[in-house]
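User: Sequence recovery, please. Input:
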């Protein structure tokens, strides 16, 4: 639990700057300690990580502990198996005993004790994500289509515990090689996912400035 924020920071630092031929071999460095006290930076990285396309958490592999909303927020037809993430965001989780983690800090310092207040950019990402969840839960399920993705078969049935990856799989489907299609036949979904990507780009630009300020990369 105490590692969620540091892992989100490292995920966001790695993915917020798009690779080009100029920066693809840039070496990430041990950052200065200023990032540890920047709560807004932590929260921005958490939002970025939860909704980024490289976050491929799926409920097909077990309980999905990373649903960032409560049932009422997205009009879910079922009860979520886990409320870990929404409780974490709401500051409802109690810290464990004092232990140093692999980052050399008290891991409890990264566990919010009050509701997280997200920045304008991160809030926009959450709102765009919430619209996707709501649209998914509003669908008319019961179709018999099955899409195969590697070892998993995605049945077009309702999944209250769907992750972002599961939602994308439902709307976009997979090609014959088991790769997720780039677009959906559902135009409204395409608009919603485009809105999320736009919000993520704005948040990425904000995080990228801190990547250099905190010396994860040399400017």
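Assistant: Recovered sequence (219 residues):
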């Amino acid at each position: 639990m105490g590692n969620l924020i540091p892992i989100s920071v490292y995920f966001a630092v790695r993915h917020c700057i798009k690779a080009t031929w100029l920066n693809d071999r840039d070496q990430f460095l041990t950052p200065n300690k200023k990032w540890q006290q920047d709560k807004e930076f932590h929260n921005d990285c958490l939002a970025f990580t939860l909704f980024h396309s490289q976050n491929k958490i799926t409920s097909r592999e077990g309980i999905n502990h990373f649903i960032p909303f409560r049932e009422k927020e997205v009009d879910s037809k079922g009860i979520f198996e886990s409320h870990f993430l929404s409780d974490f965001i709401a500051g409802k989780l109690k810290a464990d005993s004092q232990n140093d983690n692999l980052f050399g800090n008290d891991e409890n310092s990264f566990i919010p004790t009050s509701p997280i207040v997200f920045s304008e950019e991160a809030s926009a990402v959450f709102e765009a994500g919430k619209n996707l969840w709501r649209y998914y839960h509003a669908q008319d399920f019961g179709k018999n289509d099955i899409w195969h993705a590697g070892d998993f078969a995605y049945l077009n049935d309702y999944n209250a515990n769907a992750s972002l990856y599961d939602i994308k799989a439902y709307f976009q489907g997979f090609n014959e090689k088991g790769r997720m299609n780039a677009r959906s036949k559902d135009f409204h979904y395409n608009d919603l996912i485009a809105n999320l990507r736009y919000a993520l780009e704005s948040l990425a630009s904000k995080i990228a400035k801190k990547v250099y300020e905190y010396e994860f990369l040399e400017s």
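The longest helix spans residues 187-213.
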